[in-house]
Specification:
Elements lengths: L3 E5 L3 E6 L6 E7 L7 H12 L3 E5 L16 H13 L2 H16 L4 E10 L1 H12 L5 E4 L18 E6 L7 H11 L5 E6 L16 H19 L1
Parallel strand pairs: 3-4, 3-5, 5-6, 6-7, 7-8
Antiparallel strand pairs: 1-2, 2-4
Helix pairs in contact: 3-4
Amino acid sequence: MPGQDVTIGGSFAGYLASPAAGRGPGILLIQEIFGVNSVMRSLADEFAAGGFFVLVPDLFWRLEPGVQLTDKTEAEWQRAFDLMKRFDAATGVKDIQTGLTYLRKLPGSTGKAGAVGYCLGGFLAYLTACRTDCDASVGYYGMNIQNFLGESSKIKKPLMLHVAGKDEYHPPEAQKLVSDGLSGNRLVTIHTYPEIGHAFARPGGAHYDRANAGLANGRTFTFFRQYLS
């Protein structure tokens, strides 16, 4: 079933992909720094093919609505980094909550809603687990989580983190802080991919690794089927 552009909460846009059966739980897919681009839309379609309603909200809408960049040119990278620097994570998480509510109210929704994010979205997935009513969250190579470990006691639903062992944006000392800081929380599962760089699950990206992306994605699908069914 082809996806469509929608308006969320009467305020901002998003991309919605629906399961062929017209019924299922929801997944809110949290963008990278490149906006709701073709990579995010394709990922949404893949999750929808697995039986989920998938919503990709435009979290940059207050800065610049409709951003759809690629990772192929230096100019786009610089624009993406500028947007990330100006982006307010706290407000973004509020928009994520609005998106979760939207998913739960869709005709055919089971009422369950999870979240999965990549890069910037991986960090926001952690905050989503801490600050929203999300039923299950997954973060891929999220940065800056180590500076928000004080919120980990607020995690009340399962969280899975995929960590790139050779992530140039998330060095080993930061990874250890996250691992140590979350080790006592039984709701948190951390998978580390030791020899892999940042964005290893972005198809077509410089560090894309088919084997490890497949492993991580399989774990994510299993996680969502377990906690959103």
